[in-house]
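re: ur msg from earlier - yeah i can do the P-hydroxybenzoic acid complex, just paste it... oh wait u already did. ok heres what im feeding in:
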Amino acid sequence: MRTQVAIIGGGPAGLLLSHLLHRRGIDSVVLESRDRAYVEHRQRAGMLEQGTTDVLRESGAGERLDREGLVHHGLELRFGGTGHRIPLTDLTGRTVTVYAQTEIVKDLVALRLADGGDVRFEAEVLGIDASAPSVTYRHNGRTHTLDCDFIAGCDGFHGVGRSAVPGLRTFSREYPFAWLGILADVPPSTDELIYANHGRGFALHSLRSPKVSRLYLQVSPKEDLASWPDSRIWDELAARFATDDSWELRQGPITDRSITPMRSFVAEPMRHDRLFLAGDAAHIVPPTGAKGLNLAVSDVIILARALTERYASGSQTLLDAYSATCLRRAWRAEHFSYWMTTLLHVDPSADEFGHRLQRSQLDYVASSKAAATSLAENYVGLPLD
Ligand code: PHB
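and the outut:
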């Protein structure tokens, strides 16, 4: 069996790559280790940069996004019992859109299948030969080899793609906290996202629809979900979002809950021979800046362009620049995500000096147009080129 591009991983990065290549007449096969229901239901983040919505829309994958996505023009930083609005659109001319990653995956799977795309679920990759190039995988109890021109490793942080890059250098940072995330059947208590810094820890109020709220609490990475009954989650959220005025947090039935560790991670380079890494396979950001999915999408846009140029003209120029182009953008997102994380979370090892510095920085972002603009332009996403 042969294809032009073998894509390992059927998350947003792999599916979008397959879709973009199809639109340019390039064949691919997507190999996903999980089943379809699993990839369509795992809860992830949901804040899209304008560049991400633009590419989905322009490539014909934005129909439901346009109907159901919630366009936002600002966000709130809440600390010291007071909210401070960061007017993202006034400061940058750009918007962001709330639309869950899991919905993008559903849309892209449906579109790929409708277009006759080859997406194989429960296909476990056993080996990658980056110079043949080929991918060996197991599907329905049998071992197959997929020959190809190029391989895209879009198989996430725990995938096998990265291990096929020899001489990889990795850079990472672990944080002394995690996020406990919930989905709740209750109308959001806010129109715009609230990023709250409180002495008890960070909290984030996000949303999924006019009837569904998405909320997060900073917890210890060792925390056990079993010790968080619904009442404790709501009490803790209410305490961290409390303001000096009459704002109230609406509560409702919790339909999904999970604890996610937070880390920063970058692997360099993002290419070996004919294997190209994209998305979480190459870099992880803590979720505070909402960059993870957007960064995966920009890798894939850059890779699709480079492959298109290679097939159209034989030129390797963009493929040769791929790793450096993506890493430059990835490191900017790494810095921003690290900065947002340390700005807003309570570091259990920080001393009073550290607390005072953090508060000073929050005051500065809330009061200086220059500081707010820096946050805003990173949050809405820097231009691709
Ligand atoms: C989410 O809606 O899941 C979300 C939004 C913003 C973030 C992280 C997660 O920074």
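cool cool. The pocket of P-hydroxybenzoic acid is lined by residues 45-47, 193, 206, 214, 287-288, 290 (CB under 6 Å). ping me if u need the other ligands too
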